Request: fold
Amino acid sequence: MTTIGVIGTGYWGKNHVRTYSELVSENVIDSVKICDIDEKRAHELGNAFNIEYLTDHRELLSDPDIDAVSIVTPSHTHYPLAKEFMEAGKDVLVEKPMTMDSKEAEHLVEVSEDTGQILMVGHIFRHHPAVKELKKRIDLGEFGSIQLITSNRLSFGAPRKDMGVVYALGIHEVDMFCHLVDKEYPDSILATTRCNLQPDIEETAMITMDLGDTTAHALESWLMPAYGKQRDLVVVGSEKAAKIDYLKPQELQIFDIRIAEQDFNGKSAFSVENEGSYTIPIPYAEPLKEELRHFVDCIRNRNTPISDGVVGMRAVKMAEAVLRSAREGRRIQF
Ligand SMILES: NC(=O)c1ccc[n+]([C@@H]2O[C@H](COP(=O)([O-])OP(=O)(O)OC[C@H]3O[C@@H](n4cnc5c(N)ncnc54)[C@H](O)[C@@H]3O)[C@@H](O)[C@H]2O)c1
Reply:
């Protein structure tokens, strides 16, 4: 029997509720309960999915039926809520960013260790089918040595009021770049940010991470009207390159390219081999559903999630370094 509570049913929490409801229909979990301090919101969603709703999370803390919760509330509330639920004996999936402060993130990892409760963080792109396929192929050595990674997360829309693009979007990139090359942290981070509309809430950030043999660049912006909603990742290796459009989880585009230095009549020159590109089809799976299935699997089998509290904590430390680099105009070493 597994019953999960969703705390926070706003823009993103609604998706957790819908997805858990699908998992109930598929008999993966038994039931879901929801909680939002905005009663109208909780009531509407509860009615739409025929789910019991509450307005005070403390009722879920003491509910013996609740095994675990998804915390999908504003980021500054993640720390107290995640702590309270783990201390009450519930497993926790907390959305990214895990916290807005690395000291709080460290403490949540300690609470998870002390209580034995599972702590997972919503780094959804680690659960993205095309990313999983790409990572498998990188680990098999198909790409050779990884030389360059780039990512764009661009759109034109109202900026968030509670955090800028670094915590809202760039946190995905700093985690993904380390994940792809199996590093806990980069060697260094260099970043610039720009706040045009609200003080201290940057709507654009440019992040460069030195990952040893690899350099990774990310551009994040809510002020970019030219490309629609663009969310992509490009990985260039010595043997192959790949592109993922995050909005198309069922596709991984591979570029059969190589640049090699050759001897031409005693003179060294670069030869470029380009055999074109092809797309590897991947069975469709919604990334959030993969993430929540993984959470349920970890709850049942007491496994460490692939996006556990330590992953979430490292991402918060990297996001802090991004903002510090931009503020101080210098490279931050790890
Ligand atoms: N993984 C992803 O790709 C992704 C995408 C979007 C948002 N998020 C994260 O999800 C979180 C929520 O973002 P959002 O855009 O849905 O925000 P939102 O403001 O739309 O929704 C937050 C909801 O939480 C409720 N709430 C606040 N405090 C509460 C409490 N103590 N108990 C119960 N309910 C409470 C609010 O009433 C609101 O309905 C943020 O941390 C954000 O970074 C993650």
About this structure: The domain at 3-122+294-302 is CATH 3.40.50.720 (Rossmann fold). The chain has two domains: 3-122+294-302, 126-287+317-333. The longest strand covers residues 267-281.
